[in-house]
Amino acid sequence: MHSAFADSVDALGTLSDLSVVTNGLRQADVTHIHTVGPVSLAALLRANSSVVTAHITADSLVGSVIGGQLLASLFRPYLRWFYNRADVVLSLNGGQVAELRREGVTSEIIVLRTGISPRVLPSRTQARAMLGIGDKECIVLSVGQVQPRKAVNSFHHAATEVPEACFLWVGGFPFGPLTADYRKMRELVRSGPGNVTHLGQLPRATVQLYYAAADVYFHPSHQEHAPISVLEAASAGLPLVLRDIDCYRHLYPGLYLAATDASFTTQIRRLLTKPTLYLEMVRRSGEIASLHSSSQAANELADFYQELIDKRYRASIEA
To answer: CA-based Rg of the chain, rounded to a whole angstrom?
Structure first.
């Protein structure tokens, strides 16, 4: 979520007709909120016009933190109130709109795609040399927190079925002992197959090197809204193997290889053994990246902000 926020702020900062202040105390024409904690609550309550991006839903707590099911039921009324306090809620994908409505969100909901800032990455050979990875190794990469929701066990299972490839997982335990099934997850990391390496939490610049060095991006997570890691992988030109869940059907229809636990291995093997398919999926990842450029997303946001300002101005005149 932080990466998406940082890219959005950077892209908005390039627009000459906008003045963007991050976490400022003064009132702005539009206050755009990305989290739901106490500081965000204070900003929401004093905002002239408020926009909240729905990075968090109650269901995203399940399989992420200890007692996620209970926390979800307790958190749900607050999230509903928070989102309903906003003038507009930005949904991360079309499928999330129905989820928010089921949760009782009655505010206006608009779907705006997440953007990603373009980055100049080293070549595959250069990145591998910098990371100490052999040029002939086959690398399957995943980036995400270590928690049940992210399906680390599915990643490990696929690795056992494709022993000729190296499976790298970037990401750690940002919630520490509060992670759902923390001990089980730590044991899973310790006892993974021999061709799996868990690299832990890394600086974003280093993560970018792993994207550049990899051959396939594999994201088996059970629940997502619009993971920035998938966009970063697509931007790096990696073909995508993603779990067949609703958000991807809305975000990237026909542009990735959809799979389930029963077919992850098949899809990964197809990419590793069929050069024509591989190149086609690289092309489709490029299409994803072009559709989700940060500059395009920033312009869409700026237009949206202006509409909110104009709407508030017209309401003040009519009053």
So the answer is: 21
Residue 38: inside a domain? yes
Task: Report how many domains make up the chain.
Answer: 2
Q: Is residue 197 within 8 Å of 169, Cβ to Cβ?
A: yes
Check whether residue 170 and residue 273 sit in a common domain: yes
What is the structure's pLDDT at 319?
A: 61
Q: Are 115 and 298 in contact (CB under 8 A)?
A: yes
| Cα separation values, 304 from 7, 23, 152, 311, Å | 18, 20, 38, 11
Amino acid at 108: E
110-162 pLDDT, tens digit per residue, is 998 888 877 889 999 999 999 999 999 999 999 999 999 999 999 999 999 99
Is residue 316 assigned to a domain?
no
Which range of residues forms the domain containing residue 11?
Answer: 2-116+293-311
CATH number at residue 8: 3.40.50.2000
Return all residues near 252 (Cβ < 8 A) that are at least 6 apart.
Answer: 230, 240, 242, 288
User: What are the b/e assignments for 281-290, b being 16+ CB within 10 Å?
Assistant: beebbeebbe
- Alpha helices for 192-293 (secondary structure H): 204-213, 228-235, 246-251, 264-273, 275-291
pTM exceeds 0.85 = yes
